[in-house]
Amino acid sequence: MSSAAVTNNKGFGATLWDYLTTVDHKKLGVMYLFAGTLFFAIAGFEALLMRLQLMIPNNDFVSAGTFNELLTMHGTTMLFLAATPLLFGFMNAVVPLQIGARDVAFPFLNSLGFWLFFLGAIFLHLSFFLGGAPDAGWTNYASLALYSPGHGIDFYVLGLQISGAGTLISGINFIVTIITMRAPGMTFMRMPLFTWTTLITSALITFAFPPLTVGLFLMLVDRMFDANFFDHTMGGNTIIWEHLFWIFGHPEVYILVLPAFGLFSEIIPVFARKRLFGYSSMVFATILIGFLGFMVWAHHMFTTGLGATANAIFAVATMAIAVPTGMKVFNWIMTIWGGSVKVTVPMLYALGFIPSFVAGGVTGVMQAAAPLDYQLHDSYFIVAHFHYVIVGGIVTAIFGSMHFYWPIMFNRALSEKLGVWTFWIFFIGFHCTFFIQHFLGLMGMPRRVFTYQADQGWDLFNFISSIGAILMAIGVVLLVINIIITAKSKPLNCRDYWGDGRSLEWAIKTPVPFYNFKQTPLVRGYDPYWLEKHDGNKEGMIYAEPLGDIHMPNNSILPLVMSIGMFVAAFGALYHPDGKAWAIPVLILGLAITVGAMIVRSVKDDLGFHVHVEEIVATEEHLYGNGGNK
Amino acid sequence: MMKGLKKWRLFSLLAVMTVFLSACGEEYITTLKPTGAVGKEQFNLLLFSIAIMALVTIVVSVLYLYAFMKARRSKLGEDYMPKQVEGSHTLEVIWTVIPIILLLILAVPTLISTYKFADVKAMDEVDEEGNKTALTVNVTAKLYWWEFEYPEQGIVTAQELVVPTDEKVYFNLKAADVKHSFWIPAVGGKMDTNVENVNKFYLEFGKESADLKDGVFYGKCAELCGPSHALMDFKVKVLDRDGFNDWVAAMQATEGQTASAESTDLGEQTFANSCLMCHAVSGVGASGAMGPNLTTFGDRNRVAGVLEHSKESLENWVKDPESIKPGNLMTGKYGELSDEEISAVADYIMGLSIEE
Amino acid sequence: MEETKFTPQTWPDKAEQATLEGKNKFVGIWIFICSDITLFASVFATYLSLKDKGPAGMEFSAASLFELPLAFVMTMLLLTSSLTSVYAMYHLKNHNFKGVQIWMSITVLLGLGFLALEIYEFYHYVHIGFGYTQSAFSSAFFTLVGTHGLHVVIGLVWIVCLIVRNAKRGLNLYNAPKYYAASIFWHFIDVIWVFIFTVVYLMGVLG
């Protein structure tokens, strides 16, 4: 492709081809962001339907079976297909810039990770049109999952297997990138906190996704190939699924919340105009949360009957997580303390995040007390708790960071005015929806019910909760409107849009050229851009190397081909139990496409290409006008 | 329901009031007005942890609001440059140690109660004659109904658990098909019913249920188990010990009771032909039936766990169970019945009673 | 990238990590192996909790089913193949491409021998009625040992691709990390087998 990226005026076909084959972390970041937003909207709509059904007792807006499909797809989509890719979007767009790298360590695998995720997600959603979505909850407990008729659960198992593989690949990629590709001088203890949390999150992905892969595989062979892992009449045991699922499932929560912590740790110092308080303890707390995250899975199983000793150990271990999390909260508050806080939209989300997340955290500690959890478990209290953590912690981080990083990702800024409206409507709606649900749970309402009888004392609170859900939906619609309006706004062509940027990603002028920094920067301390800026360096950075040729990876269509192979194979496996003659051939065909693409990849050398100095100068002049990036 | 924006102010005020005044819910289902030692201890733990957590939340919120109010750029001026502070070891130690102390304080009652609630040794204790001293109930959860067996008494019932007050009642919990979870919110926490093993725990019932609105406590299934998970309710009738003994005796007296296909009563005849294969009408027996035992149907509080206890509900249920509990296992198990037969069989079933 | 011709004298000390791509591959394969260890840990845990579990009156048990001599021969084959891949890496350090190719080929042959015995073993079990769907125990056994077998197949395909692809071009800084990563992966497969031998066969037969 050589220097094709210089020219912007490409036809639709060429642009499409470019996105299908790209290995550029910035483009993949954008693709993750939009795919994530799409699935966020779908899952949000599912939630709205559920809240409408529960608005009044004995409602028949959606049927019992449909409701179970909605609740399953809502949970599954939000966690695997919305929150994860949205955060991956920011990791892709920001982390290589933050550490001063050209790209990620394995650009090809980065693209493969995206396509596996995307096609897995599409596969899962096809279930709505092909005989019914999965209906055993996002936890997919084995006895119900094996009992569930139709192909819903098969779509769940295969779709998550494919997209999970993508996530695992991306996780490994980020670890290697952060270990080997930091700019000179960027020691571990100078890395921005978002890079740190990306590293720890990727480590969690590395260790947490394989148990899920195994669990899904066991479910797959049980349902499709008559294995007996979960069939107790054949010696199987459904508790194995619960363990495997939660050994993955609990770290998954931290996989999502740690990058959110990282994003807030970037946003707060910028708008408080003050160095992140207690940087090293923040790093330590991140590592500790990641470590403890693996020690607590059985607190999801307090009522499963593991025995008093297991419950006691996991109760205490779970409480311990509150300590590093508390450290983080206090550090954020102390960053604000004595700073100069400018209330922009990203900062609004950060300010809203702190009390919301504390509220979600303390209810978590309450549930860590096992005997109390016997009452709270699987009631609306837990629904309230994890939505406080996930919406209050992760969704606010994603929305805030959209505003925060939009200038870097798109060279345009989202509207602040609309953003403020979005924030307040969404924030009020969020508390209105979920605060009241704590009480519903305490008043005896189990979760995952498609309806409830009148006169159990739940009618009013359910109604209030549904009103809140409508407000949240309005908020999300406003955000989408904001994105559409912004797409038509004028490009910024500036550096350090917020004025108080601290880390390296703000040192580069937007639009960011495809090779990122034309020369690798030299990092002289924590918050390198802030350092250089306040040392009077107008360019914002000093360089570790003279201007020279840049080595870049080639684009490739193979990741998409490999993913399509898996997609095809999944259909074969899915229809195998129906006794369709074409099922096994399709399975083999799909796997053959994937393996074939892998063999092509391994025997065909991919040495990349070089961008020569003249091309770099030309690109910079094209992007920034005369003089280039000065 | 929404008559305009003016109502909203009143509405939100009402909402806030309800949170503080009547957030306790209905006595027969809420965990906030518990009866019995287990539920009360869990409630006390709830209050205790809320107190600690409220303290934490308030301290954090005050610090946070204070920090924010003092640090607003609109107050400090656009050019104000804060001091770039790295951190503080003293503060780090303080906010590490204080939470640890708070958690240790919470951990003590947690651990004590965890072991206490798991102590089911008394289940196996016997008196001099070799009879079990404690009351044990074997609970089997099935797709959308509950079976309660009293092994020592040799009786079995369904959908309505009957227990005596003020003694530990032990439960053996098991699921027959998919996983469910056994929960009586007003009496104590839940325990799952697994398919491959028996879980054991105990509850205590602090007061008779007669004064409650429906005369029973509500029980729920708390684990997603299929389309009708939300409808898998059961009821708990709590009697004093004498009342319980009478009930047991009355149940035992139904031994051998059955419906006859030769009966002149159309209801009994229909029942014998269409229902008896799955539904027993004698309370003597063990668990493992295809359908709920109907010996005490006339004394129950609900039809199918959720419908009003009336002949009309029962007729509707028999006509089309699928429309009421989707995914139930009764649909299609019996032949087409005429309206006349349905009415007669409903009369017959409503007449099954062991109470006067 | 122009391919520099190396001699044993100019060949760098840690050739597999001499380029950024090489270093990435080196770190990447290790992280992948960490991840794969959790995968096997999960399968092992599943196997251990389902060992000897089956429908009422199942005739098969680990003690009666497994035979140590065959498992021992398989272990020896795989352990030896690990050693031969070490020889290949030794020659890689000294820029002796012929040595690399020969010892890698021997590794492949030994791996194929292992695979043949495993297929025979599986065939034998299925033949006597211990098929994949026979019981929870059989499902768990075939899944655990089969997952390892699948890793062996992947490793063999990988190494064969390397040998064939690079046969005519010699050793350089582009393909040295590839050989190195494949050899690390092969060692890993070997280590996993040692655990399978211990947990499944030894502990199975000895109770």
UniProtKB/TrEMBL annotation, chain A:
GO terms for cellular component: plasma membrane. The chain crosses the membrane at residues 30-50, 70-91, 112-133, 153-181, 193-220, 240-264, 276-298, 304-327, 348-370, 382-406, 418-440, 460-485, 557-575, 581-600. It is a multi-pass membrane protein. Its EC number is 7.1.1.9. Residues 11-524 form the Cytochrome oxidase subunit I profile domain. Keywords: Cell membrane, Copper, Electron transport, Heme, Iron, Membrane, Metal-binding, Respiratory chain, Translocase, Transmembrane, Transmembrane helix, Transport. It holds the Pfam family COX1. Gene3D superfamilies: 1.10.287.70, Cytochrome c oxidase-like, subunit I domain. GO terms for biological process: aerobic respiration; electron transport coupled proton transport; respiratory electron transport chain. It catalyses: 4 Fe(II)-[cytochrome c] + O2 + 8 H(+)(in) = 4 Fe(III)-[cytochrome c] + 2 H2O + 4 H(+)(out). GO terms for molecular function: cytochrome-c oxidase activity; heme binding; metal ion binding. Its main location: membrane. PROSITE patterns: COX1, COX1_CUB. It is found in: Cell membrane. This is Cytochrome c oxidase subunit 1. It comes from Ureibacillus sinduriensis BLB-1 = JCM 15800.
UniProtKB/TrEMBL annotation, chain B:
The chain crosses the membrane at residues 45-69, 90-112. Residues 132-250 form the Cytochrome oxidase subunit II copper A binding domain. It catalyses: 4 Fe(II)-[cytochrome c] + O2 + 8 H(+)(in) = 4 Fe(III)-[cytochrome c] + 2 H2O + 4 H(+)(out). The keyword Kinase does not apply. GO terms for biological process: ATP synthesis coupled electron transport. InterPro entries: CcO_II, CcO_II-like_C, Copper_CuA, Cupredoxin, CuRO_CcO_Caa3_II, Cyt_c-like_dom, Cyt_c-like_dom_sf, Cyt_c_oxidase_su2. Keywords: Copper, Electron transport, Heme, Iron, Membrane, Metal-binding, Respiratory chain, Translocase, Transmembrane, Transmembrane helix, Transport. Its EC number is 7.1.1.9. PROSITE patterns: COX2 (PS00078), COX2_CUA (PS50857), COX2_TM (PS50999), CYTC (PS51007), PROKAR_LIPOPROTEIN (PS51257). It is a multi-pass membrane protein. Residues 23-121 form the Cytochrome oxidase subunit II transmembrane region profile domain. Its cofactor is Cu cation. Subunits I and II form the functional core of the enzyme complex. Electrons originating in cytochrome c are transferred via heme a and Cu(A) to the binuclear center formed by heme a3 and Cu(B). This is Cytochrome c oxidase subunit 2. It comes from Ureibacillus sinduriensis BLB-1 = JCM 15800.
Automatic annotation (TrEMBL), chain C:
The keyword Cell membrane applies. Keywords: Cell membrane, Membrane, Transmembrane, Transmembrane helix. It is found in: Cell membrane. One of its GO terms (cellular component) is plasma membrane. Residues 1-205 form the Heme-copper oxidase subunit III family profile domain. GO terms for biological process: aerobic electron transport chain. PROSITE patterns: COX3. It is a multi-pass membrane protein. One of its GO terms (molecular function) is cytochrome-c oxidase activity. The chain crosses the membrane at residues 27-50, 70-90, 102-120, 140-164, 184-204. Its main location: membrane. Pfam families: COX3 (PF00510). It comes from the Bacteria. Belongs to the cytochrome c oxidase subunit 3 family. PANTHER family: CYTOCHROME C OXIDASE SUBUNIT 3, CYTOCHROME C OXIDASE SUBUNIT III. This is Cytochrome B oxidoreductase. It comes from Ureibacillus sinduriensis BLB-1 = JCM 15800. The lineage of its organism: Bacteria, Bacillati, Bacillota, Bacilli, Bacillales.
